[in-house]
Specification:
heterodimer, A: 383 residues, alpha/beta, Rossmann fold, 4-stranded parallel β-sheet, B: 410 residues, 16 helices, binds iron/sulfur cluster
C-alpha cells in the first residue's frame, strides 16, 4: 500500500466510524467498548480481547438529544448523544465515561437513564493528578475498571495480556510520534488534514491493523522527496480539545502556513508519552496518565499547562498558536486568557477560534484564520 | 388568572432580616480588615470544608457569595464584561466571570474581596471552581489546596472513601504548613459539633415552609442561606438560626404566610436568579403562588446524616462528597420527589441556568421523572443567575402565566 492508500483507510474510518466498528465486530467477533476521553486505559480493554473506540459524534443535526440536554452544552456531547439516541451505536457493548468535565459527567447520567442496551461504566478518575493520594486512587480506579470489565465480559484479564497491549499501544504511540516529527520537519510530506485523519482513525480502527499501517506510513513518507520548501511555511501550533475540522488545515495551508504540532486530545495528547514496559502494568498505565500532557479538565499544578505549551512552542519553532475550542467548553475556555498572555509575553501571536462539531468552518472564522496567517507572513518581511 | 395586586407589607416583615444583614456586614468588615486583627483569609468554594478553617481561626471568604451579591446589586453585566474583555468566554459561569472581573476592576458591592492568603477549592460542586481557583492562585500567588471529591453517579466506592479521607489529612497538613502552627483538634471537636447543629437547625428552618401558608419562601431562604454557607461552625450561626427558627415557628402558629393569599405552592430548582429576585417573588406572589422550597438551599444540610459529630474529620470526607450537586441525576430526582411530597407542592419551577452546567444538564430528565411520578406541571425558565443579559422579563412573565394556567386547571 502506498501512503495515500493508507491515509485513505484512516480517513474512511473517521468518516464512517460506525460502519467500521460494525464490520470489525463481525470479523473479529469481539465486544466493542466505546468511550469519550483521552484519559482512557485502552490497554485494559485490549487485554480483555475487546475493541476500544472513541466516540466523536457524527450527527450533524440535533433533534432527539435536544429533549435531554440544553443547547448550551458543547456540540460534542450533543452530537455523541444524538448518535446514541438514533440507534447508531447499536454495535457498542459497553459504554465507558471517564470523568472529564461537568458536561460529560452529566451526559453519563443522562445516558445511563436513557440507553438501556449497553453496559454502562463510569471511570471516576481523580481530577487532581499531582498529590500522592490522587495517584494511589488513580491506580485503585484502574483496578476497579479491570474487575468491572472482567465481570461484564465474563473473562479474566491477565497481567501478561495487559503487558502485550501496552507494547502494542506503545508501537502506535511511537509511530504517531514519528509521523508528527516527519510533518514537523517537512510539512509537505503529509497534509495537516491527512495527519489528523490518521490520529483520529487510530482511535477507531483495530489497533493491530492501525499499528502496522502507521509504521508503513511513516516508512513510505520518509521516502517521499518533496520539492524544496523555501522559505518554509509559517509554523502553527493547534491547541484545544477535539479537532474534528480537517478544513482548518486546508485554510491554513492555503495561506502559507502549516500546523506542525498540536496540543489536542485528538492529536498529540493521545500519544505523547509511552507507558513504561515492565512489571506492574496497571501502575505503569496510571503513571502515564500522570506524566502525559495534562488536559485542562485535570489539575497538575497551576502552571503546568503553560509550561508544556511553551515547551512545544520552542521545540517546534512555532510562529503562531491557534486555539481551537468547541463553543461552551468550560475547561479550555478558562485556561485561554492566561495562556494567551503567556504567549503574548513571549512574542508569539495567537488566535482563538470557537467551532462546533458537525458544522463546517464558517466564513468569518475562515477570514480570521486568513488574516492571522497574513499577519504572520508580513512579519517575515519586516526589517 | 386573577392577580392579587394588594400586597400588604406587614406580613412580610421579619425581625430576623435586619439582624442577618448586620451579621453579614460585620463578617465582611472583619474579613476586609483581617490583617489588622492579625488574621489570615482563605477563599473557599461554597461546598468546601470550612470547619477546619474556623477551628484554625482563619477567616473564610466565599467568592460565590460575592458573585451572588454582585448579581443582587445589578452589577453582574458590568463585571462579566470586564472578564470577557480579558478573553473569558461569555458562556462560562457568571460567578467566576463576575469575581474575576471584579478582582481586576475593583469596587463591587462590598468594595472588593479581601486578598486571600490561601485558596481552598473543593470540586464537589463543579469543575468550574477548579479552573477559577487555578486562575486566582496564579493571580494572587498564594497556596492552593484542592479537595478532590469523586463524583457519585451511582455509588460511593471504597476507593473514593479512602481517597477523600486521605485528603482530609492532607488538608490539615496544608493548613498547618501555611499557618505555621499545629492544628487544634480539641477546637475542631467543638466546631464540628456546632456545624452539625447548624445544619440541623437550617433543615428545621427550611421545614417550617411545609406549613400552609408557608411562613417564608425560597426567596427568603436564599437570603438567610448566606450564614450556613459562610460561617457554619461558629456560634454566631447557631444563635442566629435559633432566633430565625423561633420567629418562623411563631409565624406558623399564627398562620402568617409570606405570600398573603397563598393558593399555589411551588418547588424551585437550581440557583436563584439573583438579579431578578424581587421581581420574581412579586410576580409569583401576585398570582397567589409561593415558592415554598428549593433544591439549592437544602444542599447545605442534605448530607448531615453522613456526619458523625463525634468524629467530624473522620466522616466529613464522605459527607462533602455526597452533596446534591455531586450525585447522579436519578439520585437528584429522588430528592426532588421527596421535597415535592414534604412541602405539598403543586408545581415545579426549574431554572435552566446557563452558568451552571452541572446543575442544569439533567434537568430535562428530572422534569420527565417528576411528570411521570407525580403528574406535576413543570416550568423551565432559561436564564442566568448573575448575568442579566441572558434574561427577558417579558418572555419569562408570559411563560409564568401559561404555567399558572396549567396549574389552575389541575
Ligand atoms: S469539548 Fe469541553 S465541554 Fe465538551 S466534553 Fe470536551 S471538555 Fe467537556
Ligand atoms: S454556579 Fe455552578 S458552575 Fe458556577 S461555581 Fe457554582 S456550582 Fe460551579
Amino acid at each position: 500500500m502506498n501512503a495515500s492508500e493508507i491515509i485513505g483507510k484512516f480517513r474512511f474510518a473517521v468518516e464512517n466510524p460506525f460502519e467500521t466498528a460494525r464490520q470489525l465486530k463481525e470479523d473479529q467477533q469481539c465486544p466493542v467498548v466505546c468511550h469519550t476521553c483521552s484519559y482512557f486505559p485502552e490497554e485494559i480493554v485490549l487485554a480483555a480481547g475487546a475493541h476500544p473506540m472513541r466516540l466523536f459524534g457524527q450527527s450533524t443535526s440535533i433533534i432527539r438529544a435536544d429533549a435531554h440536554i440544553q443547547a448550551y452544552s458543547c456540540s460534542l456531547v450533543r452530537s455523541v448523544f444524538e448518535d446514541a439516541l438514533s440507534g447508531e451505536l447499536d454495535f457498542a457493548d459497553v459504554m465507558v465515561f471517564p470523568h472529564s468535565c461537568d458536561t460529560m459527567q452529566r451526559l453519563s447520567d443522562i445516558w445511563r437513564l436513557n440507553m438501556k442496551n449497553t453496559v454502562h461504566l463510569d471511570l471516576l478518575f481523580p481530577v487532581h493528578l499531582k498529590s500522592e493520594a490522587a495517584q494511589d486512587y488513580l491506580k485503585a480506579v484502574l483496578i476497579r475498571f479491570q474487575r468491572e470489565l472482567e465481570e461484564t465480559l465474563n473473562i479474566t484479564i491477565t497481567e501478561h495480556a495487559v503487558s502485550e497491549a501496552i507494547s502494542l499501544m506503545n508501537r502506535i504511540r511511537h509511530a504517531l510520534h514519528s509521523l508528527y516529527e516527519i510533518r514537523s520537519r517537512t510539512p509537505l510530506r503529509i497534509s495537516g488534514s491527512d495527519l489528523s485523519y490518521v490520529v483520529q482513525g487510530t482511535m477507531i480502527l483495530d489497533r493491530n491493523e492501525a499499528a502496522d499501517l502507521l509504521e508503513q506510513l511513516a516508512f513510505s513518507l520518509e521516502e517521499i522527496r518533496p520539492s524544496a520548501e523555501s522559505p518554509g511555511p509559517k509554523r502553527i501550533l493547534l491547541s484545544g480539545g477535539v479537532c474534528l475540522h480537517p478544513d482548518i488545515h486546508s485554510i491554513i495551508e492555503e495561506q502559507g502556513g502549516a500546523v506542525v504540532w498540536d496540543d489536542l486530545c485528538t492529536g498529540s495528547r493521545y500519544f505523547d508519552t509511552p507507558v513504561s514496559e515492565g512489571p506492574a502494568p496497571i501502575d505503569a498505565i496510571a503513571d502515564r496518565f500522570i506524566s502525559r500532557a495534562v488536559c485542562p479538565a485535570k489539575h497538575s499544578g497551576i502552571t503546568r499547562r503553560s509550561e508544556e505549551l511553551s515547551e512545544l512552542v520552542s521545540k517546534y519553532n512555532i510562529d503562531g498558536v491557534i486555539f481551537l475550542f468547541l463553543k461552551f467548553c468550560d475547561p479550555h475556555g478558562f485556561d485561554y486568557p492566561d495562556l494567551k498572555t503567556t504567549f503574548e509575553e513571549a512574542g508569539v501571536p495567537s488566535l482563538l477560534l470557537e467551532v462546533e462539531t458537525g458544522k463546517p468552518v464558517d466564513g468569518p472564522t475562515r477570514t480570521r484564520v486568513e488574516t492571522f496567517l497574513q499577519i504572520l507572513n508580513q512579519g517575515n518581511n519586516l526589517p | 388568572m386573577k392577580k392579587n395586586k394588594a400586597l400588604s407589607k406587614s406580613h412580610r416583615y421579619m425581625e430576623s432580616v435586619p439582624k442577618m444583614k448586620k451579621i453579614m456586614r460585620n463578617y465582611y468588615l472583619k474579613a476586609k480588615y483581617a490583617r489588622y486583627f492579625g488574621k489570615k483569609v482563605a477563599w473557599i468554594t461554597s461546598g468546601g470544608p470550612v470547619e477546619p478553617l474556623i477551628a484554625m481561626g482563619i477567616i473564610p471568604v466565599y467568592p460565590e457569595n460575592h458573585g451572588a451579591m454582585i448579581g443582587v446589586s445589578h452589577t453582574g453585566a458590568k463585571f462579566c464584561e470586564v472578564a470577557e474583555g480579558m478573553g473569558y468566554s461569555g458562556d462560562l459561569c457568571s460567578y467566576a466571570r463576575a469575581d474575576i472581573g471584579c478582582s481586576v476592576a475593583g469596587g463591587g458591592p462590598v468594595g472588593g474581596l479581601p486578598k486571600p492568603d490561601m485558596l481552598i477549592c473543593c470540586n464537589n460542586i463543579c469543575g468550574t471552581v477548579l479552573k477559577w481557583y487555578e486562575i486566582q492562585a496564579r493571580r494572587f500567588q498564594v497556596p492552593l489546596f484542592i479537595f478532590d471529591t469523586p463524583f457519585v453517579h451511582t455509588k460511593f466506592t471504597k476507593e473514593a472513601k479512602s481517597y477523600v479521607d486521605q485528603q482530609v489529612k492532607d488538608y490539615i497538613r496544608f493548613l498547618e504548613t501555611v499557618m505555621k502552627k499545629r492544628f487544634p483538634y480539641d477546637k475542631m471537636n467543638v466546631v464540628g459539633k456546632r456545624s452539625v447543629e447548624a445544619m440541623g437547625l437550617w433543615q428545621q428552618i427550611l421545614d417550617t415552609a411545609a406549613a400552609r401558608p408557608a411562613p417564608f419562601t425560597a426567596f427568603d431562604a436564599f437570603f438567610h442561606l448566606a450564614l450556613i454557607v459562610t460561617l457554619r461552625g461558629t456560634g454566631t450561626v447557631l444563635r442566629y438560626y435559633r432566633f430565625l427558627l423561633d420567629e418562623l415557628n411563631r409565624r406558623v402558629e399564627n398562620g402568617i404566610g409570606m405570600v398573603e393569599n397563598e393558593q399555589y405552592r411551588f418547588l424551585w430548582d437550581n440557583l436563584p436568579i439573583w438579579h431578578r429576585m424581587r421581581w420574581l417573588s412579586k410576580t409569583f406572589a401576585a398570582r397567589n403562588a409561593a415558592l415554598v422550597a428549593d433544591t439549592y438551599t437544602s444542599a447545605w444540610c442534605g448530607t448531615v446524616d453522613y456526619i458523625d459529630e463525634n468524629d467530624f474529620l473522620g466522616s466529613m470526607g464522605e459527607a462533602y462528597t455526597r452533596i446534591y450537586l455531586n450525585i447522579g441525576v436519578d439520585k437528584m430526582a429522588e430528592k426532588v420527589l421527596k421535597m415535592i411530597d414534604k412541602y405539598h407542592v403543586d408545581g415545579f419551577v426549574m431554572h435552566s441556568n446557563r452558568s451552571c452546567k452541572p446543575y442544569s444538564f439533567g434537568q430535562y430528565d428530572i422534569q420527565k421523572i417528576v411528570q411521570r411520578e407525580r403528574g406535576l406541571p413543570v416550568l423551565i425558565l432559561e436564564s442566568d443567575m448573575v448575568d442579566p443579559r441572558k434574561f427577558s422579563e417579558g418572555q419569562v412573565e408570559t411563560r409564568i402565566d401559561a404555567f399558572m394556567e396549567m396549574v389552575g386547571q389541575k
